[in-house]
UniProtKB/TrEMBL annotation:
Record lineage: Bacteria, Pseudomonadati, Pseudomonadota, Gammaproteobacteria, Chromatiales
Chain spans, region Disordered: 321-343
Predominant location: other
Record's subcellular location: Cell envelope
Name this polypeptide is given: Hydrogenase 2 operon protein HybA
The keyword Coiled coil appears for this protein: no
Originating organism: Thiorhodococcus minor
Gene: hybA
InterPro entries attached to this UniProt entry: 4Fe4S_Fe-S-bd, 4Fe4S_Fe_S_CS, FDH_Electron_Transfer_Unit, TAT_signal
Length: 343
């Protein structure tokens, strides 16, 4: 192969110039909450642990019962209780309990207990959506709900690794598995309803509404004084139904207001959220950083790719004549293909 040194140097210099000309990938701006975004406010001080929300969720979403609970194993029975220990491929909404010391008083950090409801947080700038390579997870531009398309999913489970709340679950026991997560009963909302967990909750612990209005309601509750009686809306913030309850006291924070760029599932409790198993996260979504790294890698790969392409083209061009012209014989005449005689 004959490659002219001057042409080779030209290609190398051009590739190096391309590599050095690439700018630094900048972080994209954070995504903002859609103007008509809806969400859920969970108030652990109002939760009585009845798990009506779990039942409502399964009925509304045709979810199967989970008979793998420790309760059934402890009693040596099967098919009796639907009592999973955590979120799984059969459970999108789970009430869990926290207890400390003697656990005598509800919503107290010392010698107390509290409930916590786990479900998809519907992040404003969701890491799972950013991580999904096929857009099986998308964020509705109007409601902000993080929705899942099983037909687009390839089962890579990147969303499970990306989610800081450990929410998406995978159907490992299925031949054709899919990801399972709360979608805030989007099918019910499309018909004018509200999420089943909010509809089923008898105390108003799970409250549906527009996210800005839910934040306003949450901060209203933070002004309540422990021991006084206050009116709490139930089911839906604009539904008109209320109940009066004694204020048990709040930990001064609305979880989800700023975490990972904000979430549409907001939480209030009487104990610190780290006691309830909620991660301590910053105010910036990790999706911004991950996408910046990805774009930087892709941008960095362009220069080597162009350089390699230039070298291949140079090799092709300089060997073109060798491929077109037959090689010369030692006596200076072009060699001819010999005819194979018949037997």
């Amino acid at each position: 192969m004959k490659i002219d040194r001057r042409d080779f140097c030209k290609v190398v210099v051009a590739g190096a110039a391309t590599a050095l000309s690439g700018g630094v990938a900048e972080a994209r701006p954070p995504k903002e909450l859609p103007p008509k975004a809806v969400g859920i406010l969970y108030d652990a001080t109002l939760c009585i642990g009845c798990k009506a929300c779990e039942v409502g969720c399964k009925e509304a979403n045709d979810m199967p019962m989970d008979h793998t609970s420790c309760a059934e194993q402890a009693h040596g029975v099967t098919g009796v209780w639907d009592a999973p220990d955590d979120l799984n491929s059969r459970t999108m909404n789970k009430i869990k309990a926290y207890a400390q010391g003697t656990a005598e008083v509800k919503d107290r950090p010392q010698d107390g207990y509290s409930f916590i409801k786990r479900a998809c947080m519907h992040c404003v700038d969701p890491d799972c959506v950013s991580a999904c390579p096929v857009s099986a997870l998308t964020k509705d531009p109007v409601t902000g709900i993080v929705q899942y398309d099983p037909d687009a999913c390839i089962g890579c489970r990147y969303c499970q690794l990306a989610c800081p709340f450990n929410i998406p679950k995978f159907e490992y026991d299925k031949t054709f598995p899919k990801i399972v997560k709360c979608q805030m009963c989007a099918h019910l909302q499309a018909e004018g309803g509200i999420p089943a967990c909010c509809e089923a909750c008898p105390t108003g612990a799970s409250l549906f509404g527009a996210v800005p209005d839910l934040l306003e309601e949450a901060h209203r509750r933070l002004t309540f004084k422990s021991g006084e009686r206050q009116s709490y809306p139930i089911h839906s913030l604009d539904g008109g139904e209320t109940r009066t309850a004694e204020v048990r006291g709040y930990y001064p924070k609305v979880y989800g207001e700023t975490e990972t760029g904000g979430t549409q599932y907001l939480m209030m409790a009487g104990v610190p959220f780290e006691h309830l198993g909620m991660p301590d996260l910053g105010s910036e979504s990790r999706a911004r950083l991950s996408e910046t790294i990805q774009h930087g890698l892709y941008q960095g790969m362009m220069a080597p790719t162009l350089l390699l392409g230039g070298l291949v083209y140079a090799a092709y061009r300089n060997t073109h004549e060798d491929r077109m012209d037959p090689p010369e014989a030692p006596d200076g005449k072009a060699s001819q293909a010999e005819e194979v005689p018949d037997d």
